[in-house]
Amino acid sequence: MQIPDVQLETERLLLRVPQGQDFEAWAAFMADVDRTRYIGGAQPRSLAWRGLMTMVGSWAVLGFGMFSVIEKSSGRWIGRLGPWQPEGWPGTEIGWSIVSDAGGRGYATEGATATIDWAFDALGWSEVIHTIDPANAASKGVAAKLGSRYLRMDRLPAPHDANEVEVWGQSREEWSASKEQRQ
Q: Strand, coil or helix: what is 113?
């Protein structure tokens, strides 16, 4: 197994495979009760470490996983975003989570746009979904900006199966059509 050397760049962001040097920022983010309330809740450092290692492992085994989001202007880690499909997941997901002080700047939309392009082009996906807690209005707004629409209610696999999530998404064809309109 080898971790691919994938890096995407947008106007303001560098998206790269997570690295060990990301751990302090990753752990601080995962301890933030407000920012993690819709992604399983705050975690102690030991669980945050396991989460980072899971993401790196996903890259090694599957050839994809969420990217670390690096803000170009500061060089700092500001979140994780991108392709994700653990065992039992309801589809091929593009997800996003951005640190509190970088929220509301359009980074999630900017990064997700680049990773959706990459997932369709490099991974050959035919559809992308976004699993969103029904109370998470901000993520629904990002999904709508991406051109995704509400598809259905579903459940994530255990241990995240206590509550239903909204599944938003779109097909490769819908993405291509909306991309032409955005240009």
A: helix
> What distance lies between CA 119 and its chain's CA centroid?
12
Which residues is 31 bridged to in the sheet?
Answer: none
Report whether 81 contacts 64 (CB < 8 A). Answer: no
Residue 133 Cα to chain centre, angstroms = 14
Reported as a single tens digit per residue, the pLDDT across 26-80 is 999 999 999 999 998 999 999 999 999 999 999 999 999 999 999 999 999 999 9
What pTM was computed for the model? 0.94
CA angle (33 as vertex; 31, 37 as ends), nearest 5: 115
Q: Which amino acid is residue 18, in one-letter code?
A: P
Say yes or no to pLDDT of 181 above 90.
no
3-state DSSP call for residue 174? helix
Is there a contact between 7 and 14 (Cβ–Cβ < 8 Å)?
A: yes
Q: Is the CB of residue 111 less than 8 Å from the CB of residue 53?
A: no
Mean pLDDT of 5-13: 97
Closest CA to 155 of 126, 179, 134, 182: 134
Beta strands in 48-148 (DSSP E): 67-71, 77-84, 93-98, 127-132
